[in-house]
Amino acid sequence: MQRYETEPGHQVQFDWGEFTYEQEGIIHKFYGFTAVLGYSRMRFVTFVKRCDTPTLIRCLMEAFEYFGGLTRSALTDRMKSVLLEMQENKPRWNPRFADFMVSIGVTARVCKPYTHRRKARSSAP
């Protein structure tokens, strides 16, 4: 497998992971948010109870603060908190997510379907 390299400050990749645990016979669900810088592989991880758009935006803000700045682009998969649908191979972004990305000056990009290798940094355990 060939590594996909980016220049410093160029890209962050982010994704959710779902986790469960049992406590007193009740199954609880929570989510892990991971953001990884493309060049340095520096990783930010946090755990939350929801994976909706407002929570995603908060997690991204925390990640950029942790990294000490913004990247030029952000790569993600087709999560519902980011992408409503693809229209003629162009993303139709969740408006709240799109407005946030424009406000901070970061270009959002979405992986092509079934190309997890391209975004493997944030999907790795």
TrEMBL record:
Entry coiled-coil feature ranges: none
GO biological process, one term: DNA integration
Pfam families found in the cross-reference section: rve
Superkingdom, taxonomy of origin: Bacteria
Domain Integrase catalytic stretches: 4-125
Gene3D superfamilies given in the database record: Ribonuclease H-like superfamily/Ribonuclease H
InterPro entries xref list: Integrase_cat-core, RNaseH-like_sf, RNaseH_sf
GO molecular function: nucleic acid binding
PANTHER family, sorted: TRANSPOSASE, TRANSPOSASE RV3428C-RELATED
UniProt protein name: Integrase catalytic domain-containing protein
Organism: Dictyobacter kobayashii
